[in-house]
Amino acid sequence: MIESTENSESPRLQLARLRAFLFSKARAFFAERQILEVDTPIVSQGVSTDVHLDFFSTQYHPLGYSRPIGLPKDAAQTAFLQTSPEPHLKRLLCAGFPDLYQIAKCFRNGEFGPLHNPEFTMVEWYRRGYQLEEMQAETLAFCQCLAGEKPIRVLTWEDAWRKSLGFSPFECSESELRSHPALQKIGVQDKDLPTLPDVWNCFVSQIIEPTFDANAYTIVRHFPIEQASQSLPHPDHPQLALRFEIYAGGMELANGYEELLQPEEYRRRFVADLVQREGLQKPCPPLNDFFLKDLAGGLPACSGVAVGFDRLVQLASGAPTLGQCLLFPWGQH
Amino acid sequence: MGVVSTNEFRKRLRIMVDGQPCMIVENEFVKPGKGQAFNRVKIKNLLNGRVIERTYKSGDTAEEADITYTTMQFLYTNGETYTFMDTKSYEQVEIPKDSMDGAERWLLENTECEIAFWGDKPISVTPPIFMDLVITYTEPAVKGDTANNVTKKATVETGAEINIPLFLDQGMKVRVDTRTGEYVERAK
User: Fold this and answer.
1) Which residues of chain A neighbour B56 with C-beta distances below 8 Å?
2) Given A5, A31, A201, B71, which residue has the most CB atoms within 10 angstroms?
3) Which residue in B7, B35, B58 is closest to A201 by CB distance?
4) B2–chain A nearest CA distance, Å
5) What average pLDDT does range A212-240 have in this prediction?
């Protein structure tokens, strides 16, 4: 933790100094590895279709130029604040860019709590030719660089269940899971978990993650394919995905993948997301045509990761909430 | 009563849970990066005092509980019910001993208590945190006692039994913490 030059400096100024220090550490980390910093739009015509992300949208009003013929004078175009820089970074990779990173402001509507702020900073980077293991190792090194070294625990998603609860979710039926006493204990209603992956997520995030060693980094690998998002299936175990997450205690820090390459599979997953969103009566954005078109040009084999920068600040400073790691937390924004 | 959404949940908000009036004690928004958002809530049942955990889907709603708090003065008891009076409206209410939560141990005539009503049904009685009460009976301390005992039993003017330090005698006034039933200090 950086010492401030004067003890009388306000906590907020001390926070700003810590953030500045960690930003410079992050940049040095990537410079050492010759990973290029890029900056991409915050406002875009496309946005993630993830079922559990709510986006901010806004309106662009053309002032008279570049207006499509036939569009009324005051017609506005909907644009979206990015929930992650992933689509733009992948489009650059498809255009032949080398390994790259972005320190990106991301926006997730409605997410506000001890570990959440609707506007937050993500550090996201991609490594051509890296497989999951290498990406995992580099992500861990990044976390240790910014938030300090701690003991490390590595286990598969399935083993995390065995270790915490004594059984594997792959070895019991959906109804057995839904009637498990651990779910009753936290008082969650069955109707609030419409799909089996929702049941898994509830177990993992509400019951298993809190049991992770508070003073260690825990790395969980090989999520079920239903939770693959934009990652590749495991070549030997198609029911698993090449995805890892890194936690400090029970707090999620990073989410990494060996990236999916086939444009048709991206499209299929996005459409499935939209069908689910519609069923949940959530707003459905249009399919991200620019992204899909660029993917058809070929995404090189690579791995990528997204790390919550503010959470690393929280870890480094020992602050109890994320809001205390921001100069203008939500509510004072 | 209205309906509240999880984004309006806060400490001390009173909501219905499983048909029982409850008060929110803790409320936390939790969300894994790639999963559903929940509100983890600790809720105190206002009828039986038990604290339970609930996990609400974020955006879910709950019915507000019709709980009001009124300050009322204790008038008298017939042993089975305790009669209180609203000092503003002079309305009286009789509360059965079962609903008193043990508050009856600390009441003197005119003691003001906070009474919680669910609709018009009194469900809990909270006396002042500290009550100064006269010791009406206790054994004098015997020399040699101090080796084995630090406190002795005493009865106070309300009839309640508490533990007091050995040096105190009948007729002295003591301050009692009504939340724990423990002696705090000598009172004037």
Assistant:
1) 192
2) A201
3) B35
4) 22
5) 95
Place of tokens 């070294």: A149
Coil, helix or strand at residue B92: strand
* Residue A40 burial (CB count, 10 A): 17
Give the nearest partner residue to A205 out of B30, B54, B58, using CB atoms: B30
Alpha-carbon distance B161 to B152, whole Å?
10
Phi and psi torsions of A213, nearest 5°: -55, 120
* DSSP per-residue string spanning A207-273: IIGGGS-TTSEEEEEEEEGGG-TTBPBPSS-TTEEEEEEEEETTEEEEEEEEBP--HHHHHHHHHHH
Angle at which helix A263-279 crosses helix A289-296, to 10 degrees, equals 160
3-state secondary structure of A49: coil
pLDDT tens figures, B77-123? 998 999 999 989 999 999 999 888 889 999 999 999 999 999 989 98
Q: What value of ipTM does the predicted structure carry?
A: 0.85
With beta carbons under 8 A apart, name residues in chain A contacting B59: 110
- Chain B interface includes A204 (CB < 8 A): yes
| Interval A161-191: pLDDT, tens | 999 999 999 999 999 999 999 999 999 999 9
String of DSSP letters for B5-65? EGGG--TT-EEEETTEEEEEEEEEEE--TTS--EEEEEEEETTT--EEEEEEETT-EEEBP
From A95's Cα to the closest Cα of chain B, the distance in A is: 28
